[in-house]
Amino acid sequence: MSVSSLNGAGAPFVTKIGGRIGALISGITLSPDLDAASIKFIYDAMLEHKVIFFRNQSLTSLQQEELGALFGSLVPHPTVSSASGTKHIFELKARKGRAANTWHADMTFMESFPKASILRCIKPSVYGGSTLWANTATAYSSLPLPLQEFAEKLWAVHTNNEYDHTDLIVERDWEFIQWQANIFAAKVYEAKHPIVHIHPETGEKCLLLGQFVKRLVDFNLPDSRAVLELLQSHVTRPENTLTWHWQAGDIAMWDNRATEHRAIADFDYEERELQRVTLSGGTPVSVSGEHSYQLINGQTNPIWLSDKTGAWTVRDQV
């Protein structure tokens, strides 16, 4: 991969950093002023390698938004307010060791979820705090043929609500649980997606799983959990993943339709700050040609968590 020139400098180049996923892009300084050849180079590299990285970049929040807009329409998070002074920045500002330490693709509780995300590291944790990515296309292609055929028939409901709060309370503090229920899930979204969807640009078959899956359609809960665990285990096999150790100024850009990612909450009470923009995507299509669709679209969540630890109540009683 190369282009003839880049802002008067030598051609950029790609260095693979994982056998199945991930590449480092060198020779490009990211800015809202990238030319068409550079934009195409970056986007094509993302499609091929699923997640790409840039070191030593210097972007402001506004420039990050403007950069993202070069690759498509930006979409804000439907329930979490954007960072102050921005329209589309999702802020990941960790306190008390908090991180999204479960495997997921961004906002799959929406019928049309983001096609890509761009994440900028402002302040890495002193230690730990890495992020994992997994390739859901190779996860599908490495399944045994009978399991591929089985998975292609399955559909699942994705939601931003109904987490296993017991596990979260063990791992985190009540303040975080309140944020997740009273802000992140203040409005409920649920979408029905095929477990295997056709990537609209590469044509690859990709698994569509992750933490937002509530259950498989037409399955009882124990069987749903067993099947989902089996399929998810193929996504997160070590050879199908990579680990990125953040430095200040790093930028990651990934194909949200062909990956899952997970932050590692191993940085104790150290601070960690990143900012993300997401690009609007289309509606997934199953192998048989059926489209995903929205089941619940921003319905007010009736459940509210009060200040008292462990206290759940109905919202209209607050």
UniProtKB/TrEMBL annotation:
<keyword id="KW-0223">Dioxygenase</keyword>
<keyword id="KW-0479">Metal-binding</keyword>
<dbReference type="InterPro" id="IPR003819">
    <property type="entry name" value="TauD/TfdA-like"/>
</dbReference>
<keyword id="KW-0408">Iron</keyword>
<dbReference type="InterPro" id="IPR051323">
    <property type="entry name" value="AtsK-like"/>
</dbReference>
<feature type="domain" description="TauD/TfdA-like">
    <location>
        <begin position="16"/>
        <end position="278"/>
    </location>
</feature>
<protein>
    <submittedName>
        <fullName>TauD/TfdA family dioxygenase</fullName>
    </submittedName>
</protein>
<comment type="similarity">
    <text>Belongs to the TfdA dioxygenase family.</text>
</comment>
<dbReference type="GO" id="GO:0051213">
    <property type="term" value="F:dioxygenase activity"/>
</dbReference>
<dbReference type="Pfam" id="PF02668">
    <property type="entry name" value="TauD"/>
</dbReference>
<keyword id="KW-0560">Oxidoreductase</keyword>
<dbReference type="InterPro" id="IPR042098">
    <property type="entry name" value="TauD-like_sf"/>
</dbReference>
